Amino acid sequence: MSTQTTATLVRLLPTDELALLKCYVEGTPEPKEFDTLYRALEVPDEALKLPGVTRLAVAVSQILLHEIQESLPQWASVSDDEVFLNRKKHKRHKDARLAFNPRLICTINWADSGPGMSWPESYHVTFLPGFDKFIVTSSRDGPDAWGCSDHAIGVADGSLSPTEAAKEVIINFWRSQVLSWGQERWAYLFDEGTIGEVVAEAWADEVWGTE
């Protein structure tokens, strides 16, 4: 990072958040003191269920997606005129002043397991000024499948376009699930973002092949 950009980020980002982002982008070991930051951000720990889902990845997603979390997938039910939401609102540091600008790539549905029971997952790409990197995040309608609603799934070089960066990370994310537990292809596209159905299916073809 340039001296000027670093100074700007320090003014707008709390030191704690800057440390979390730097650790994730650079892939360095998490220091023990991050435990205090995770507790302050209410990042889950024991609930995390799958390989690659770390508290650092969850914390990073909370920082990047904070401003748009109302638009992320959400499962809700109504009982006796009371609404129950599966996704809980997540926190950022109280002194955070930099609002990031995540761009929706697309929202897929992995499957329909029953009436009103879909498994949506949306992907966003966010540019990190100063780091010259993109971070791609995955968001679901609650913590049921992964033990968290959101987590960062990878980093891509800032010289790429946002869509190119997202493609690189998302395809690797899907492929890792195929290799780890034989994940089947997702069912269909819920929402378009920077890509539509044709491109999303083409990305899936690179992982699962064509029928």
**Strand count:** 7
Largest sheet: 5 strands, antiparallel
Q: Span between N and C termini?
A: 45 Å
- What would you report as the Rg, rounded to the nearest angstrom? 17 Å
Low-pLDDT sequence parts: none
Proportion in β-strands:
25-35%
Find the structural class using helix and strand composition.
alpha+beta
What's the short story on this structure?
This protein has helices at 3-12, 15-26, 34-40, 55-65, 162-181, 197-208, and strands at 76-79, 82-85, 103-114, 117-128, 133-140, 150-157, 188-192. With 211 residues, the chain is of the alpha+beta class.
Question: What is the element layout, followed by pairings?
Answer:
Blueprint: H1 3-12, H2 15-26, H3 34-40, H4 55-65, E1 76-79, E2 82-85, E3 103-114, E4 117-128, E5 133-140, E6 150-157, H5 162-181, E7 188-192, H6 197-208
Antiparallel strand pairs: 1-2, 3-4, 3-7, 4-5, 5-6
Helix pairs in contact: 2-4, 5-6
Commentary on this structure:
The protein is of the alpha+beta class and 211 residues long. It has one domain (3-208). 34% of the residues lie in helices and 25% in strands. The protein is built from 6 helices and 7 strands. It has helices spanning 3-12, 15-26, 34-40, 55-65, 162-181, 197-208, and strands at 76-79, 82-85, 103-114, 117-128, 133-140, 150-157, 188-192. The chain has a 5-stranded antiparallel beta sheet, sandwiched between helices. Strands 1-2 form a two-stranded antiparallel ribbon. A hairpin with a 4-residue loop joins strand 4 (117-128) and strand 5 (133-140). Helix 2 (15-26) packs across helix 4 and helix 5 packs parallel to helix 6 (197-208). The radius of gyration is 17 Å and the shape is globular. The model has no long low-confidence stretch (mean pLDDT 86).
